[in-house]
Amino acid sequence: MIVMKNICKTYKVTRRNAGFKEAARSFFRRETETVTALDHVSFTIHDGETVGYIGPNGAGKSTTVKILSGILTPDSGECLVDGRVPWKNRIRHVAQIGVIFGQRSQLWWDVPVIDSFELLRDIYSIPPDTYRANLDEMTELLGLSEILRTPTRQLSLGQRMRCELAASLLHSPKILFLDEPTIGLDAVSKIAVREFIVKRNRAHGTTVILTTHDMQDIEAITRRIILIGKGKILLDGGLDELRRGGEDIDHTVAELYRSYEI
């Protein structure tokens, strides 16, 4: 179970005008502004749920995921993931979660994919039988057999994202955080990724938290939506409850954004 209570997080951002004089002046006197990323964010996610965490750019989605995965420490508030405080129990915590950032990679660029998998096996101390079973399952479900011996840099974006999914699940995590997992993918690759995530949730009860701007991802994978805007939770409910008549998901979410002025 994931529990967040009144989590707050702010950043200091440096500002300056254009030009050489302004650049030189900034060496001696920097103008900063405090930006609120999360403002008393609270929610609970139960084991096995699939949740879409949505909102416009800068709403606080990625900051939330980074706090839940232990990368960031909040300014205040409480956060427990299966009884662990993510940023205080990082070694135990990362052994139970999988994380994918659509614009970041955990695969080594110049070596074959299988070498990256075997290094992750050693990092997570995955038992040989578990590693082999998970590798075989994901090789079949994600169609990786032809690309395991290919260096990551030679893969297409869709191929790499399928490998990223496999890498995040080799150690059998209970929770999977997905931050823009289908960004830049073609239609065929998107469908393959969506279908795999749904199958993983049904077969293993993996809890899935998905942040994305692609509402088709939300519709295909999740059953609950949490809407965040300007650092605050604005709405939390079932996907079916949010629909209005025969509206498609894009129109439903667009209307939500307009109604909350975000």
In summary, what is this structure?
With 262 residues, this protein is an alpha/beta fold. 38% of the residues lie in helices and 26% in strands.
Quickly name the level 1 CATH class: Alpha Beta
- Helical fraction equals 25-40%
Radius of gyration: 20 Å
What is the domain tally? 1
Walk me through this protein's architecture.
Helices cover 38% and strands 26% of the residues. The protein is an alpha/beta fold and 262 residues long. The protein has a single domain, classed as Rossmann fold (3-Layer(aba) Sandwich), CATH 3.40.50. It has a six-stranded mixed β-sheet with strand order 5-6-7-3-8-9, sandwiched between helices. It has a three-stranded antiparallel β-sheet with strand order 2-1-4. Helix 5 runs antiparallel to helix 6 and helix 6 runs parallel beside helix 7. The two termini are 29 Å apart.
Keywords:
10 helices, Rossmann fold, 26% strand, 262 residues, three-stranded antiparallel beta sheet, alpha/beta, six-stranded mixed beta sheet
Question: Which helices and strands, and how do they pair?
Answer:
Layout: E1 2-15, H1 20-26, E2 31-45, E3 50-54, H2 61-68, E4 76-81, H3 90-94, E5 97-101, H4 113-123, H5 128-142, H6 157-169, E6 175-179, H7 187-204, E7 207-211, H8 215-221, E8 224-229, E9 232-238, H9 239-242, H10 249-259
